[in-house]
Amino acid sequence: MKNPLVVNALELLRRPGSLKDVACEVEPEVVELHDERLVPASTVDVDLVCSSLSTGIVIEGAISARFHGECRRCLAPVTGQIDTPVRELYQETVTDPDAFPIENDQIDLRPLVREAVLLELPDAPLCSAECRGLCPVCGVDRNVTACSCSTEARDPRWSALDALREQLPE
Ligand SMILES: [Zn+2]
Ligand SMILES: [Zn+2]
Predict the structure, then answer these.
(1) Residues 91 and 46 occupy one common structural domain
(2) Phi, psi of 11 (to 5 degrees)
(3) pLDDT tops 80 at residue 109
(4) CA of 131 to the centre of ligand 1 (A)
(5) What pLDDT, on the 0 to 100 scale, is given for residue 167?
(6) In this structure, which ligand is nearest to the CA of 150?
(7) DSSP run (H or E) holding 7
């Protein structure tokens, strides 16, 4: 079966100025993504245009995918979408230090898609930028309930003083 993420470069190089759309939804396994941050059974959406230029083939567009996880502050479930722009140059003879080689007259976009997703997937997502998190003292979700705990960080020198004070007679 022909993989939509493997582009025939020869066809494009023969006709400078030509374009080819690569728009598809692929299973994460197709690009060897086995990441638990991806929403199960969701696809990676690829929306790219290949342009044949005199310098090579430029691949430009965006990759998106759905992720899920736990808010790093309040532990609530979080889902979201990454949408990452990509732009890469592929050359038969690599002269540009940032270009990738065209091998066997083909451009394999799978590593590009895989890397784009891995770079964007958040390690520690937030349910919202304003999330107030859990109270470190009593554990309530401060987005839901206000508590009266004092959560100011104490200077460690004070705890040394406290320890001394406890040893003193009343
Ligand atoms: Zn949160
Ligand atoms: Zn509290």
Answers:
(1) yes
(2) -55, -45
(3) yes
(4) 5
(5) 74
(6) 2
(7) strand 6-8
Kindly report the pTM of this predicted structure: 0.79
- In sequence order, the β-bridge partners of residue 46 are 24, 63
Q: How many CB atoms lie within 10 A of CB 102?
A: 21
> Is residue 162's pLDDT more than 90?
no
The whole-angstrom separation of Cα 113 and Cα 29 is 12
- The verdict on 91 and 165 lying in the same domain is no
At 141, list the tokens: 């979700």
Query: What pLDDT is recorded for position 4?
Result: 86
155 within a domain of the structure (yes/no)? yes
DSSP 81-115: EEEEEEEEEEESS--STT-EE-BTTEEE-HHHHHH
**Residue 130: per-residue pLDDT:** 95
- Considering every ligand atom shown, identify the ligand nearest to the alpha carbon of residue 130 and give its number: 1
Tokens of 80: 């979201």
Q: Rounded to an integer, what distance in angstroms lies between the CA atom of residue 134 and that of residue 70?
A: 13
In Å, what is the CA distance from 100 to each residue of 41, 93, 112, 140?
Answer: 31, 9, 10, 51
Give, as one character, the DSSP assignment of residue 155: P
Domain that holds residue 80: 6-120
Amino acid at 103: E
Are both 15 and 87 inside the same structural domain? yes
Q: How far is the CA of 86 from the centre of ligand 1 (A)?
A: 30
